[in-house]
Design a protein that fits this description.
332 residues; mainly alpha; two-stranded antiparallel ribbon; 2 strands
Amino acid sequence: MGPGAAVALVFVGCCSNVVSLELLVRQFPGCGNIVTFAQFLFIALEGFVFETNFGRKKPAIPIRNYVIMVTMFFTVSVINNYALNFNIAMPLHMIFRSGSLIANMVLGIIILKKRYSASKYLSIALVSAGIFICTIMSAKQVNVANEGSEEESFYAFVRWLIGICMLTFALLMSARMGIFQETLYKQYGKHSKEALFYNHCLPLPGFLLLSTDIYSHCLHFSQSTPTVVPVVGLTVPIMWLYLLINVITQYVCIRGVFILTTECASLTVTLVVTLRKFLSLIISIMYFQNPFTGWHWVGTGVVFLGTLLYTEVWTSVRAALRGPDVEEKKAD
């Protein structure tokens, strides 16, 4: 599968996933752990059957390297979802996860000693600034209590600060994981499906630490409003249907991301994922009828300007328009 198909998987799967996640979080803000567990379990089972052939296929990359990657991946996934328990609104959640562009570039310079052109630095700054504008305009308040006693308001604010710290840590850890994957693939070759399986299978025992919370939300989900599943005609609690949709779309999304990591550089992968997050924000605003102000359009323009600058589309167009003349001059 080429980069184009992988990008399509990322945009279709991840954008649909955000909508289903928001439907879940609106009903139960603390359901992050059960969502993460369901996603990991589904992807691990699929990989066990189709990738490892029921455990008979040996990994191309040593397990010890997967243990390091899994530790980072599990930490990032759990913290990102669990942060929703700490008064973090979905738009603010998106802005921190979209900030991975800057984190990836900074860590790439520090760890891999990479150097980028001035246009790349500018494009990353523009994309991040555009998403920042859109999300800030959407997040008029960050679920901090404005009513009640000062003590209650202070407690809510402290919880919000803890959530911000959690998202910041997850942001840096995610960027570090991307760089680790890039160096791993250079050494052992590209094995996206294998990495996808081990990243979701090895962390499963860790969910035992969260079993009480997961079981509690299972009970809550089972008590939600029954609904009829289209085509099948089966009646199930609506929260379980939302979770099923979330798990399937997450698989499509993460599959596309892991394929991208084998085809493109870490920064390019981060840019694609960031643009997907921006599109998810727009879909979320339109679907849930949140206001879309003039500032949102400004942010949209800035994001696409940064994208065009990063892909050097203007240079490509200019070269295509005057390509023959240039080639003739070079030949002379």
